[in-house]
Amino acid sequence: MYILAVDSANEVLSVSLKIKDKVNTDIYDDIKHSSEILLVAIDKLLNNNGLQSNDLNCILYNKGPASFTGTRVAASCLQAIGFSKDIPVIGISSMQLMADIFSMESSIESFTCLKYAYGEMCFSCDFTSDNLSKQMDSCKLVKIEELNFHTDKFKVLNEKLHQYIKNTDKQLTETNKVLMRETNSEDLIEYCNRYLKIEPGFNLSDSLPDYANHQL
């Protein structure tokens, strides 16, 4: 099975190609120009492995919530490929990826994932360890100043939010965990391996991005 995965939701663009049990990944630091390099990066990765887009069995991407531009570019480009070739395109939530990464190193049963959004806002979503493939509720935007880090509810923060909080008067407690790396395209493939059943054919509803009710 050939699976293409794209994560443009963070400071870097990562593009991975799974060929049977092997995963090849390219990293691009110039995420500000993702709209210009994404298709080139995909084409390069496919060519280097002797493949064309017609050969793909599935396309995965980080559907956000995250950078509006990066998410929108990835969604539109990959939807175009998937629709034209009738290839399934599946968007995976950045919050689900965070939850999955955290669960691999923790036995906490119930927790909230928090990810920096913009300004004084962050994304928030609740999870349980026995059903990581589904969010307990829809992801929402919350004000960072309203977060309470002194409750029993365990919270998982991304590094960017942690850096923001370090510049405030808030203090993290033992019921908080900081993920020391952001998600990438290889995480998408690992998530797919664990939770997803790939159905043939393009389905628009599977490919829609998630802006966490944030309209720009």
Overview of this structure, please?
The protein has helices spanning 34-48, 68-85, 94-103, 159-166, 185-195, and strands spanning 2-7, 13-19, 22-28, 58-62, 89-92, 110-118, 121-128, 140-143, 154-158, 176-179. It is an alpha/beta fold and 216 residues long. The chain has 2 domains: 2-93 and 183-207, Nucleotidyltransferase, domain 5 (2-Layer Sandwich); 94-179, Nucleotidyltransferase, domain 5 (2-Layer Sandwich), CATH 3.30.420. It has a 5-stranded mixed beta sheet, sandwiched between helices. Strands 8-7-6-9-10 form a 5-stranded mixed beta sheet, sandwiched between helices. Strand 1 (2-7) and strand 2 (13-19) form a beta hairpin. Helix 1 crosses helix 2. The protein is globular, with a radius of gyration of 17 Å. The chain starts with a strand and ends in a 21-residue tail after the last helix.
Describe what is shown at a glance.
By secondary structure, the chain is of the alpha/beta class. It has helices at residues 34-48, 68-85, 94-103, 159-166, 185-195, and strands at 2-7, 13-19, 22-28, 58-62, 89-92, 110-118, 121-128, 140-143, 154-158, 176-179.
Number of β-strand runs: 10
Poorly predicted tracts of residues: none
Estimate the mean pLDDT confidence: 90
Q: What is the chain-wise order of helices and strands?
A: EEEHEHEHEEEEHEH
| CATH architecture verdict of the largest domain | 2-Layer Sandwich
Shape descriptor reads globular
Please indicate the percent range of residues in DSSP E strands (runs of 2 or more): 25-35%
Tally of structural domains: 2
Fourth CATH level, the homologous superfamily of the largest domain: ATPase, nucleotide binding domain
Residue share in helices? Answer: 25-40%
| Largest sheet descriptor | 5 strands, mixed
**CATH fold category name of the largest domain:** Nucleotidyltransferase, domain 5
Number of helices: 5
Going across the biggest sheet, name each strand in turn.
Answer: 3-2-1-4-5
CATH secondary-structure class of the largest domain? Alpha Beta
Structural class, from secondary structure content?
alpha/beta
Based on CA atoms alone, the radius of gyration comes out at 17 Å
End-to-end CA span = 37 Å
